Amino acid sequence: MAHLIERAKSGRAVCKTCQEPIAQGELRLGEEIPNAFSGRPGMRWHHLACAADSRPAQLREALAAFSEELPERPALLTRIERALGELPPVEFPFAERGERASTCRACGLSIPAGELRLATELREEHKGYFRLAAAHLHPGCARAAGLGSQDEALIRTHSRGVSPADLDAVTAALAESRPSA
C-alpha cells in the first residue's frame, strides 16, 4: 500500500490517531487502505506528529519520498526513531521548548509554542487502553503538580535540546514555587 504526504485539501478530514480535525493546508500522512465495497483504495489521514508515534515506519517511507521543504523534518525523524525503539525511551520529568502550544495541567493556562515548559508523565485511558503521554507545566506551576527538589536532578539529566541557561531558569522557577516554611 502507498503512503504519501500532502496538504489537506479541506478541513473535513479527521486524524485517525487523535480524532482531531486536520486543518486545510496542513501537511498530513495519507495511508492507502483497501475498500471492500467499491474496489478502489481509500485513504486514512493522520497529522504528521501523530503518525510519527502511531505509524512511524509508514511516515519514514513517505518522508523519504517527500521533496518539499519541511522545517519539522528533524523533529519528526527523532520521534520516528523513538517510536521504532531506535532511541532510548523518554524519561520524565524533563524541560523543553515545545513546538506546539499546550495547556498547563496545574493552572489550565496556555503555554505558547517555543516557551520553556516541564513535561511529566501522564498515563491516561484512551479507548480502552492506557497510553503514556506528557503532561505539560509552567515551570512556576511545578510545585503545585507535585514536583519537588528531588526532581531537579532528574530534570537536568533527562532534558535534551535546552540550554544550561534554560535549565537554570527551570531550577529557579522550582525554587520560587516552593511554599515558604
Q: Judging by the overall fold, what is the CATH architecture of the largest domain?
A: 2-Layer Sandwich
By CATH reckoning, the class of the largest domain would read Alpha Beta
- Main structural class: alpha+beta
Number of helical segments with 4 or more residues: 5
Distance between the termini: 63 Å
The name of the CATH superfamily of the largest domain reads Zinc finger, PARP-type
State the order of secondary-structure elements, H for helix, E for strand.
EEEHHHEEEEEHH
**β-strand number:** 8
Query: Main sheet: which strands, in order across?
Result: 1-2-3
Largest sheet: 3 strands, antiparallel
Mind sketching the topology for me?
Blueprint: E1 3-7, E2 27-33, E3 42-47, H1 48-54, H2 56-65, H3 73-83, E4 94-97, E5 102-103, E6 110-111, E7 116-126, E8 129-137, H4 152-158, H5 164-176
Antiparallel strand pairs: 1-2, 2-3, 4-7, 5-6, 7-8
Please characterize this protein's 3D structure.
The protein has 181 residues and is of the alpha+beta class. The chain folds into two domains: 81 residues, Zinc finger, PARP-type (first zn-finger domain of poly(adp-ribose) polymerase-1, 2-Layer Sandwich), CATH 3.30.1740.10; 83 residues, first zn-finger domain of poly(adp-ribose) polymerase-1 (2-Layer Sandwich). 27% of the residues lie in helices and 25% in strands. It contains five helices and eight strands; from the N terminus they run βββαααβββββαα. A three-stranded antiparallel sheet has the order 1-2-3. Strands 4-7-8 form a three-stranded antiparallel sheet. Strand 5 and strand 6 form a beta hairpin. It is elongated, with a radius of gyration of 19 Å.
